[in-house]
Design brief:
118 residues, mainly alpha, three-stranded parallel β-sheet, 3 strands, disordered C terminus
């Protein structure tokens, strides 16, 4: 798990990939699954994350909140997260794990889709 204080950058994916490759080669024991990585950052561009196809390498990106939004906005976000989680569970039930490749869901929400640095 990697904590970044700034917005997600493509270089973060490369750094995490290096960590995962090293773990896979030198630390993974027989019978263990391939390691996965999580990058926590202040903001993330959905498009940038999707273009890098990091889920195929076992890397997920998540945003953290530096402050809580107003109560009404917070409740709306939590309800949206719950709906999305239920939809992911339904998709998994429709396609048993043995029939589908490993896939990491993205658990982040863009704070401002118009921000250029994302």
């Amino acid at each position: 798990m990697e904590l970044k204080l700034d917005a997600f950058k493509a270089a973060h994916a490369g750094q995490m990939l290096l960590y995962l490759k090293w773990l896979d080669r030198y630390e993974r024991k027989e019978g263990e699954e391939t390691p996965i990585g999580i990058i926590l950052c202040a903001t993330a561009s959905r498009e940038k994350v999707e273009l890098l196809e990091m889920d195929k390498a076992g890397i997920a990106v998540a945003e953290y909140w530096t402050h809580l939004p107003p109560k009404a906005e917070f409740e709306t976000k939590i309800k949206t997260i719950l709906i999305e989680a239920k939809e992911r569970l339904e998709r998994r039930r429709a396609f048993p794990q043995k029939d589908t490749p490993k896939h990491i869901e993205y658990f982040y929400e863009s704070k401002d889709d118009n921000t250029e640095d994302q």
